[in-house]
Design goal:
Elements lengths: L4 H10 L1 E4 L5 H14 L7 E3 L6 E5 L6 H6 L3 H10 L4 E9 L9 E4 L1 H9 L6 E7 L10 E3 L32 H11 L11 E4 L5 E3 L10 E8 L30 H5 L5
Antiparallel strand pairs: 1-8, 2-3, 3-4, 4-10, 5-9, 6-8, 6-10, 7-9
The protein binds (2S,4R)-5-hydroxyleucine (HL5), succinic acid and manganese (II) ion.
Amino acid sequence: MRLNQVQVDHYRSNGFLLLESLLDQREVAALRSAFERDSRVPGPQVVTEEGGKEVRAVYSSHQRQPEYAGLIRDPRVLHPVQQLLSDDVYIYQFKINAKPAFGGDKWAWHQDYLAWRLADGLPAPRQVNVGVFLDDVTEFNGPVIFLPGSQQGGLVREGRADSARSDQHLDPDDISLTPQQLAEHVDRHGMTSPKGPAGSVVLFSPEIVHGSAPNMSPFTRRLLIATYNDTANLPRPSGEARPAHVVCRDTEPLRALPVPFSQTLETVTA
Ligand code: HL5
Ligand code: SIN
Ligand code: MN
């Protein structure tokens, strides 16, 4: 699958692009059950909601679950990323933000590249985020909200704060825009929240301002985010590198599967 020129132009000018129902419902079911499995693996890759036991995010599932190892090499996903970024890309970060029903917390307004420059010394914003909807995303269950075009203005904020919430990863709370910065940017760019059925995919820039509200609905909103980085843009941490579940160490260029990932999972029975 290749993006057409209208789609490429949309991504470049708005900083995001929605591909509705890119994956089918059987594939979504496979990805969900892989998440159920993976969120029960104990370890520092499981981030819980503040003061609770509910899962807020799980990192690096592609290193443990074959469904995700296939998904990141699926031609429907990898080819568009290569088109937008470079032929040689690898997974810099892989996470699933769980946003549980009745209480999944917000993700503060932020730009990803600030986190990655500060925490990992990532030289340039040469990444593409691939967001995969594991649930239907509606106005009710805390969709990601983008400020379209805000990726064109560079980084808004400089430093970071420190809080317990960022023990296992860098929570956007610590790099969030001030209310005034947010208001000015919304004035200029407006807001939009891509919505769609489970299996839809949203590509988005590491510099676009985004965030999402708490989920008070009875519907979970699991969002997988695979971040591809150009292999010519490896992190250069000033101190100790962050753990491998947050910043992946395998920087070999990915090669696309010849078929959708779901076809590689099926075991042939005679
Ligand atoms: N949690 C990520 C990290 O690298 C950073 C955030 O949405 C990406 C800002 O620790
Ligand atoms: C993020 O930016 O990583 C969080 C977005 C979300 O899950 O709503
Ligand atoms: Mn983000």
